Amino acid sequence: MRKLAAIMFTDIVGYTALSQKNEALALELLDEHRQLLRPLFSQHDGKEIKTIGDAFLVEFASAVEAARCAIDIQKTLMAHTSAVIPDQRIQLRIGLHVGDVVIEEGDVLGDGVNIASRIEPLASPCGICLTAAVAEQVRNKIDLPLELQGEMQLKGIKKPVTVYRLVLPWEKKTGFLRLASIALRQPSRARMVRAGVIVLLIATGLVWWWTSQRVPTIRPGEITRLAVLPLANLMNDPEQEYFVDGMHDALITELSRLGALTVISRQSVIRYKNSDKSLADIARELQAHALIEGSVLRAGDDVRINVQLIEAAADRHLWAEVFDRKLENVLALHSDVDRAIAGEVKVTLTPEEESRLVAARPVNPETYELYLKGMFYVNKNTPEGFEKGIAYLNEALEKDPEYALAYSGLAISYIWQMDFSFSPPRESLPKAKVAAMRALEIDSTLAEPRAYLAYVRFSYDWDWEAAEKDFIRAFEINPNMATAHQQYAVFLAAMGRHDEALVEIKRAQELDPLFLMYSALEGLILFYAHRYDLGIAQSRKTLEMAPDLLAPHIFLSMCYYAKGLYKEAKAELQIIEELAGEAASLLYTCFGVSSRNEALEAINKLEKLSGQIFIGGARYAALYAMAGEMDQAFLWMEKAYEQRDPWIYGLKVGPLWDILRDDPRYDDLMRRMNFPE
């Protein structure tokens, strides 16, 4: 039997990860969430069709009742979990759709169900997404604003679906002003009552505003988000900055491997080096529960680290300790600091984490110094920096051929050289693979080389299955590695798994909130997903925070091109040229092409540039395709294939390649690149 119905699909945020980490707790929370939700379904005349793991599928006769039920669910959960420690909070995503469904043996099937399940992952934690069909029916019938998210191409659904979100009270900072406005429009029994309501609303809003500017006081055992601030150099010797920076990086890396903590990445915290901002301001910007600050003092082979743990909101020192070691035992020093911090924030170490911290072996002081110098220069991300850094890392390996961290440093050095177009993929990525594999042969517990190997496997080897296994293993070892989450996001986008890719890039942003490249890359992933309006909105959002950042201008030009907005795309290319020069603009000139003549002119300009930097064949292929020269386009695609040009790992889903997809040669390329079905 067919009928029109409102469908709700709910899902618990992070349930799979929690099940793997603590199955007993996961089952307990699952039962608790079912007990909370089922009475609410009944109150709104909802019919529970079935549970699918941690998800509910519920049918309603009315879109309005479905929306009201969804709102009540989120408000109930928000109130219920407000006093619960973070690890035991239940957060739901909810998707709502009205459509034609099929009733068969007590089950509900059809596109109406599929669409509700597909838009649910697009909701934020504790949020509600709904289709235009629901939005039209609930508009002006619920006292919450609707916000357009744009057209989405959902998996298994032929036509794009327009998606909205309900803006819940905790998602809208100025909500109290809106409520005050509503109150003023309502008839009141007496002037004093109306005035009292307004005063109360404004007072409540002011209290909310004041408290939102502070990081809430954290009770013992609730510190789960930490930031390690740059360590102070007490040696008054600028030549020792490499050593102090190395100590800082090591503390972040080791703490990041503790699965119960979220540790802000280096790229966000390093900007506070020598900052005069208050600790409360820093904590608020990083959304950190607590900060770690300290200093390094070195005299010959004697090293002292002074570390303090500070509760951000109250500027209250929770703990402080001094650690002294010989340089050869510096790895044990890091382990001692990490174990002490874990104890103070009441984190329970897993047996694997405990054994890893205990097993820190001595290191040759000269080798370690060379390694720190190498990474100091590599982190500069300049041609000279890479040359110096790689030389130091190789020198470290001459001293100790079994030093895994030096091999790991070489792996990322070669990857970054390619990323910055300082060397072609065929020159850099095989070296990165060899270095990463050697690091893992020596120490298989290192997450970093595992993630670097995963990157090479998918971007160079096109071994998609092996790459994913390596990514997953890297996250098991270090769940806080922001660069790995970013690389995995790009991998998932290239595979066409766009919703998963968005989850990963948002996780990278959580770990590195001030490194806006991850915010920009969300725009690229939305471009791959053909969600151009959202890609434009995300790129503009990033540019509001960093107008001179190059990447969002690039991704804006790509989305404009895909929508046929060539004038706007060319304007972005002009900004790119103003920010980074003509060469940078030419590299992305294909996204401003609107005619055959423009494509041929761009090819001529690229050929003049090719002697200066590496230009992959895929850029030429795109321009020849735009000029209608398909044979030339595929000739250059073959060159890109031989070069292992990074542009073509987006071949499966990238909008740039839509023009090639009807040609049999495209299918042959897809086969040779080992893309899974």
Structure description:
The protein has 677 residues and is an alpha/beta fold. The protein has 29 helices and 14 strands. The strands form two sheets. Strands 1, 2, 3, 4, 5, 6, 7 and 8 form an eight-stranded mixed beta sheet that branches. Strands 9, 10, 11, 12, 13 and 14 form a six-stranded mixed beta sheet that branches. Strand 2 and strand 3 form a beta hairpin. The two termini are 34 Å apart. About 6% of the residues have low confidence.
Write down the overall mean pLDDT.
83
Structural class: alpha/beta
Q: What fraction of residues sit in β-strands? A: 5-15%
Radius of gyration, in Å, reads 27 Å
Number of helices: 29
What shape does the CA trace take? globular
Q: Kindly report how far apart the N and C termini lie.
A: 34 Å
Q: How many strand units? A: 14
Helix share bin: 55-70%
Topology:
Blueprint (H helix, E strand, L loop, with lengths): L1 E11 L2 H7 L1 H21 L3 E6 L2 E6 L2 H19 L10 E13 L2 E3 L1 H9 L7 E5 H7 L7 E7 L8 E6 L8 H11 L5 H22 L12 E4 L3 E2 L7 H16 L5 E2 L2 H4 L9 H8 L3 E10 L2 E10 L4 E11 L3 H15 L6 H8 L6 H14 L4 H17 L4 H16 L5 H18 L4 H15 L2 H14 L4 H14 L2 H14 L5 H12 L3 H14 L4 H13 L3 H15 L1 H6 L8 H14 L7 H10 L3 H14 L20 H9 L5
Parallel strand pairs: 4-6, 9-11, 9-12, 10-12
Antiparallel strand pairs: 1-3, 1-4, 2-3, 4-5, 6-8, 7-8, 12-13, 13-14
